[in-house]
């Protein structure tokens, strides 16, 4: 089974789990756009938790990171619910697809704004830089696909698509909060000969963001190359 088939199989399994919730939402009158809007509001809540944590907590007090991670995953559920509400409720529309894409971008940018605010407020300046690079990569992964498809070429492969990004951010933030509750804020790992620590409790959250910063931009570049190849083949056929 290739990567895309595995991803599709996993997605279908998740749909079977969430379909009872989807049917309930349809029954009480939720439209796909209302579900999408709810996801955006929850992501504003994520940013609010990070910003409040940046303002009222001290560096190393990571409980706000853990709570924000839980809300990231909950908000991420609405990314799947809106499409399923549209399909099962026979309420799909072209504008709904565009509305979903636009609000997804807003949701992601608002979430990263909160993360960057928190990191800068607590002087994790290098990590805040990687969070910003991860945001750039995330936007470019989506943009390269949208631009390629606008030019008539399918372009949706690669790592670090939105579901993977949401799960990685959410789980790493939760893991960071849980790790903090067990080992505290001052846990650090030093390597002999290195004048600074190479790992601390906050790294449970910031290392995955660094990985995301690399992988999202690799995915965007790979999509650009794939689109170039597909466009050249298309031009050769029409020449």
Automatic annotation (TrEMBL):
Keywords: Membrane, Transferase, Transmembrane, Transmembrane helix. This is CDP-diacylglycerol--inositol 3-phosphatidyltransferase. The chain crosses the membrane at residues 33-52, 64-81, 126-146, 166-185, 205-225. The keyword Acyltransferase does not apply. InterPro entries: CDP-OH_P_trans, CDP-OH_PTrfase_TM_dom, CDP_ALCOHOL_P_TRANSF_CS. One of its GO terms (cellular component) is membrane. Belongs to the CDP-alcohol phosphatidyltransferase class-I family. It comes from Pontibacter actiniarum. Pfam families: CDP-OH_P_transf.
